[in-house]
Amino acid sequence: MVTTKKNADAIGTNGYRLIGTRPIRPDGTDKVTGRAAYAADTQMEGLLFARLLRSPHGHAKIKSIDASQALALDGVEAVLTAADFPGIEMSGNDRNGRPADNQWLQDNILASDKVLYHGHAVAAVAAKDPHIAEDALTLINVDYEVLTPVTDVREAMLDDAPILHPGMRTNVQASDVETDTERETNIAMHMRLERGDIKSGFDSADVVIEREFETSWYHQGYIEPHSATAFWNRDGKLTIWNSSQGPFVVRDATAKLLDIPIADITLIPQEIGGGFGGKIPMYLEPISALLSRKTGKPVRITMTREAVFQATGPTSATYNRIKIGAMRDGTIVAADAYLAYAAGAYPGSPVGAGVQCAFGPYYIENQRIDGYDVVTNGPKSAAYRAPGAPASEFAVEATINELSESLGIDSVELRLKNAIKEGNPNAAGVPMPRIGAEEVMEAVKNHPHYTSELQGDDVGRGVGFGFWHNAGLESGSTATINSDGSVSLIVGSVDIGGTRASLAMQLAETMGLSYEDIKPRVADTDSVPFTHVTGGSRTTFAGGWVAYELGIELREKMRERAANIWEVDLDEVEYSDDATITSKPDNEGNEREFTFVGLASKMASTGGQISATVSLNKTSQGAAYGGHIVDVHVDRDTGKVEILRYTAVQDVGTAIHPSYVEGQIQGGVAQGAGMALTEEYFYDDEGLLKNASFLDYRMPTTLDLPMIETEIVEVPNPGHPFGVRGVGEVPIVPPMPTIQQAVYDAIGIRLYDMPMSPRVVLEELLNEG
Amino acid sequence: MARFVLKTNINGEEREFLADERDSLLDALRERAGLMGAKEGCNNGNCGACAVVLDGRLVNSCCVMAAEVDNSEITTIEGLAEPDSLHPLQETFLENAALQCGICTPGFLMSAKALLDSNPNPTEHEIRWWLAGNLCRCTGYDKIIRAVQDAAERINS
Amino acid sequence: MQTVTYQRASTVNEAIALLSDGGENARVLAGGTDIIVQARERARTVDSFVDIKHIPELMTFNYNTSDGLSVGAATPVYLLYNDNDIQTHYPALVEAITVIGGTAIQGRASLGGNLCNSSPAGDSLTSMMALGAIANIAGPNGERDVAVSEFFTGPGRNILDLGEFVVAISFATPPANSGAAWQRFIPRNEMDIAVVNCGSYVQLDGEIVTDARIALGAVAATPIMVPAAAEALIGRQITDETISAAAEASYEAATPIADMRGSVKQRKHLSKVLTQRTLDIAVERARG
After folding, report:
1. Domain total for chain A?
2. Which listed residue, A425, A428, A504, B152, has the most CB atoms within 10 A of its CB?
3. Residue C76 DSSP code
């Protein structure tokens, strides 16, 4: 590992020159002046506006679609239904060789034979004006045969539940389980992770706690609705401008569904107005593209907010059962988890990560985790910040908080006793490298918030922890040295929250340059190697690896260039940490030294411009842990929970740009607080979503949160040149159990179903009398 | 389609363009006048991303008909900075990292400007109350509130 | 939004003519914070907007101690809550209008608009009812005054006839030794529809209640007055017990539905809690 230390007075306490400082983000001025271009801002000559017709039913067969009246409306240029897809081989493998069902992918974009949720898209109209497109939707007649919906995960698992996908059988990813693989079912998958012997573990336990939990559907709630513009020219070349966390993934999927070569598509990602996982799936791009092909004009689709809630996003609603056994001294000896996640319309809930993360912060010798992926009538669930982890870890943390009470052991001490350490196996059995679980728990224990006295009536304090494994995956970038010594950094990762800054900082640190010397830019899919989604807290980690490797390669090339100019052996040339290139004096005693700028200015005449391209798939991501402390007040007359004080402690490995690290943590807390208190989906008996708006899907406002204190713990990831672990996911995990515990502390009532809305809290209080 | 000529002053400039009778002010600004700074987050007054100042008063432009603003004065995010410098709020938003994805930022800036214009020295609670109609999903609001506090201090000093 | 025309009225008579000619799908456009969204989402059929904001008297308000307060129906509420007289004499009104939407909504939203939208949960409605406000209505057959408490006929519906619209809302000068307060309960701290809202008004003679009005919102098809709550107070000494009795009367009077915004049990209980809380404040204000 090369660290790029310069003169001592310029180096921070972390040993770095730039890492750990707080420069202004490169895209900042565009964003505060309204100049940054987001997907819905795409304008071009001849642009058509498309609108989607969506199902008014929760579950129905499509018998026929008649769009003739819509097509006849003046200004309407094309109508699209699922019949317009080219019809490809629907089975196949994804990029990583896993089976992918393209029929499900396509049907989720435009339903073919069945609508599986309220708001499922069935047709699209492109018109000269958005108002005309809206009028045209009212002229499309769809004949439905309405079917009984099933929106609840446990009801969907019953033998007599309405079946969403006729012929579906359970894919069992475990041995020795009794799951019926013969019957037609909504249970798409059953997986199990197991180690040790839970029976003997529970037999030896002094205390066993078993509890059941439910969590609602939660939407990512990004403020920017999905939008995609496409132009398919007569030469077969398709250009897409969109809002996506994964431009390359969307490009490849679009090529697949439209049956065209990947190289015929250029995807130009626009600034992205939030995603949190919800802008990984593809919803609009093939529709815009096919409408463009029909009309010969560019077509833009922007979703309505109602459609965003009805048809995109949410993370699975879940039912979880947790059983934990411990000895009197607090040693947890056995743990069993049953996790059932509603996938929505098509298989693919994040139950896998829910299973992997459930007992994440702890080492438990005997454990078994069963996970079920269950289709239900609702939008296909999408990734949402630490996908799958908040629900399973809430259930585990809440159970541990109860265990601590039964054992009479402080809940942080209990956790420290069972904390996962370097060398312990993770859920998959792989030994952990250096991790910071204990450091986080110690930091919580010693935090002035935790040690302060809680004062007042009906107030309570809670503490909870969370884990996310983080992600590596493919990333690619190109860096080019310009003749004035500046460096253009072209990255494939879209920037949702400041990654242009964090990647530029890592390249500058590696090369001994200033932050301002690096000009980062997010490129289109033709300009850099395949780069996986901005998600999983991978971008600063994996993109940082790439930036580091780019820096090393550029340093090498600058040395080589200098060696050529000086006609000396390469090993006689040094690239110092202040980016000067030197060798020993020549025979006449002249200094051999180039400043970085000096050598850059000579590139053209000494062999041409220097650039490098790096593409990596790193798997050395670092597991990360967070611990939260909250104080709440509960109004016993209304059931309302007020957050009085909130502290989030997290091991981030190394904080590249601490402001954005804090911002990620604070944002995660805000979303987690919404999950705990006010956010939920309301489906009626007909499977209709009743609260598809920001008014009734209640995300926290400025008045619902206090300032959110953060404490950054830095236990560097040994698998990263600068120790980066990844930040964004972990902080959404602890809020549910943390706030749940605080509510219990305040009013003596434990609530097992999230959210703890005022209605629920009040009714519990009234029931208690 | 019923089109009409909309005459209005946007960011100090007299503008004349065709709009549709069904257009909201937000539609007209974005799709007819080409000012993309105001954002559509919900189109029903619940997120504040489309906030602009109309005849001196903060409004959600999605809840105003374009036809209403004939002969009005409108300030949008594009009109907030001086030709050679940013508004103090723009500076403090950048310095505090008070934006992540940036989609809500134009609305927050316009709202915060309206606040500081009417109350140059707001308390934290007054800031939170004033900005409660602006949703942000990235930041947890902490850094936004601090940026507004810093801007107030900068303007008052 | 379906095809719609936009027309400006510059006098009350012009507005009456435009609304009469336009038929039942001609809608008054005041602040537009409800009607524009409803038209866009095709929740209400609107084929013409009649903008009343260019009628000068619709956009102003007057207060004096003899006549009380008269508010032009389209006056944006922020002008009201920033006014010293209104803050001093009608704090219960200020409490309601400072929570209607966010500040950008308050730049446009009006009492007349809130009234004519006639939502069972409209925030200013129960405040106006508790204050005994009167709607001044103009129409093809002349003017008439209707108490706000008599204005509503159902969710989104009211007593206005074709061609009629609300010109102003009038509030009497608060008598000596009177006080009023308004509160709502919402799950968040802003940007929500009330689960329940409540306005209370009392007038005292020493410790004896001489007049009282309690209004509840979101517990029936329209905002309601709770006469039984007033009866539990009038003629009695103000004590915790009489306030509790009034609160119990609110509990009994509430006949809410269960929906995503609240359950029956929750809404009935909140009717009691908010009646008690607003009465406590109203009494404190009445005592001075």
Report:
1. 2
2. A504
3. B
Q: What is the mean pLDDT of residues A521-526?
A: 97
| The pLDDT value given to residue A100 | 65
pLDDT digits (tens, 9 = 90+) for A85-144: 998 877 766 666 666 688 999 999 999 999 999 999 999 999 999 999 999 999 999 999
Distances (CA, A) of C179 to A351, A483, A750, C92, C275: 57, 76, 40, 9, 14
Q: Which of C2, C3, C260 shows the shortest C-beta gap to A691?
A: C260
ipTM score of complex: 0.98
Does one domain contain both A749 and A660? Answer: yes
Residue A704: its chain C contacts at CB < 8 A?
Answer: 188-190
Topology (CATH level 3) of domain C5-51 = 3.30.43
Does C260 reach chain A within 8 Å, measured CB to CB? Answer: yes
B68 and B92 share one domain: no
Q: Please report all neighbours of A, defined by 3+ CB atom pairs within 8 A.
A: B, C
A residues 655-684 near C, CB within 8 Å? 677-678, 682
Handedness of CA B24, B25, B30, B32 (dihedral sign): positive
The CATH code that applies to domain C56-171 is 3.30.465.10
Could you write out the DSSP letters of every residue in A328-382? TTS-EEEEEEEEEEEEESSS--THHHHHHHTTTTB--SSEEEEEEEEE-SSSPP-
CB distance C108–B46 less than 8 Å?
Answer: no
The pLDDT-based confidence of A591 (bands split at 50, 70, 90) is confident
For residue range A369-418, list pLDDT tens digits in order.
999 999 999 999 999 999 999 999 999 999 999 999 999 999 999 999 99
Structural domain count, chain B: 2
Q: Which secondary structure element, helix H or strand E, spans residue C251, and what is its range? A: helix C240-253
Q: Collapsing DSSP states into helix, strand and coil, what is residue A685?
A: coil
pLDDT in tens, C239-255: 999 999 999 999 999 99
Chain A positions in Cβ-Cβ contact with residue C260 (cut-off 8 Å): 682, 690-691, 696
Which phi-psi region, left, alpha or beta, contains residue A15 (left: φ > 0; alpha: ψ -120 to 50)?
left
- Residues of chain C with Cβ-Cβ distance to A757 below 8 Å are 187
Per the listing, tokens 């609108």 go with A51
Domain range for B13 is: 3-78
CA dihedral A537, A543, A545, A551 (to 10 degrees): -150
**Cβ–Cβ of C104/B46 closer than 8 Å?**
no
Confidence at residue A5, expressed as pLDDT on a 0 to 100 scale: 37
Q: Over chain A, what is the mean pLDDT?
A: 95
Indicate the residue among B78, B104, B119 that finishes a domain.
Answer: B78
Answer with the one of A575, A603, A618 that is the final residue of a domain: A618
Q: Where are the domains of chain C?
A: 5-51, 56-171, 178-287
- With contacts defined as CB-CB under 8 Å, which chain B residues touch C102? 45, 48, 60, 111, 131-134
CA distances from C216 to A141, A253, C126 (A): 43, 54, 6
Helices (DSSP H) in A512-611: which residue ranges? 544-566, 596-601
Q: What pLDDT is stored for residue A425 in this prediction?
A: 93
Q: What does the pLDDT look like over A491-516, one tens digit per residue? A: 999 999 899 999 999 999 999 999 99
Q: Compute the average pLDDT of residues A524-539.
A: 93
Q: Which residues contact C89 (CB under 8 A, 6 or more apart)?
A: C63, C69, C173, C174
